[in-house]
Amino acid sequence: MRYRTLGGLRVSAVGLGAMPLSIEARPDEARALATVHAALDAGVTLLDTADSYHLPGGEAGHNERLVARALATYGGDTADVLVATKGGRGRPADGTWTVNGSPSRLKAAAEASLKRLGLEAIGLYHLHKPDPAVPFEDSVGALRDLLDAGTIRLAGISNTTADQIRRARAILGDRLVSVQNRYSPAVRDSVPELRLCAELGIAFLPWSPLGGISRSSLDGPSGGGSAGGSREERFAAFHAVAREHGVSPQRVALAWLSALAPTVIPIPGASRPETARDSAGAADLVLSAEDLARLDAAGPVRP
Asked: Among 89, 131, 254, 262, which is least packed, fewest CB within 10 Å?
């Protein structure tokens, strides 16, 4: 496993997104725990969760409790594992994703997450999404208060613009250590945010990093092609490079993301142990300049 820096900490160059273990089509608990354990065995030390990762309706915090159980039942050393969770979103019974970024809601959510995770302090806490009904500075101010109170050790923001990153940094300073935006072979519209994070030394954590290679859980039931051609046609380069290296196209996609900037740390989801192991292997896959150029050509230019 190779490593990168996040908020002064050394973390694995590829993390694990635990979301698929708690939402629709989730595995049984035994397989879910085995999936987290497989990632840990492979050297993964960054686990990403959120209080809203659960089935529609009740059971808020299902994924956080699952991550806590996985760590408690793991036979190896977990001292260096960084658990990142998020607050500010919800999943009511209709299956939609709501947003609530009020300071009181975020503080209460962080306290509840802390109890579910069973930690002395949350390692990394993200504002899950800016709330258009709440001034952004107020939501970020709640992160500052949580840092000052010792409830969280590091802070980040998610689903944000470059302007919001600058505004958050004006409030948090160097305590803003990560940005979690969507970025993948299929979705590359966060180039300005990725570039800014590289400039500022802020970790950029692409969520749903396998989009185009594997469908995101947030994409809905349809996984077919688009007006731009079928998935195979649009992303054939990822499959071709994978064949040449004797690895999966998913592993190539993660290695390509990691090559965008030294601050990039992909957090692919997994629901099976073998998938978690395969993703972790991307940290050791080195792509040539020719490989990267071919993969870049499947979408917008590199940052």
From this structure: 262
Residue recorded with tokens 């302007």: 163
Please report the DSSP string for 182-208 in residue order. Answer: B-SSS--TTHHHHHHHHHHT-EE--BS
pLDDT tens for each residue of 44-103: 999 999 999 999 998 999 999 999 999 999 999 999 999 999 999 999 999 999 999 999
Give dist(CA 113, CA 125) in Å, integer: 10
Active site residue 53: yes
Cα–Cα dist 47/72, whole Å: 14
Instruction: Kindly name the residue from 3, 53, 125, 183 that is annotated as catalytic.
Output: 53
Question: According to DSSP H, which parts of the chain are helical?
Answer: 29-41, 62-73, 103-117, 136-149, 162-172, 191-200, 231-234, 236-245, 249-258, 273-280, 289-296
Local structure of 140: helix, strand or coil: helix
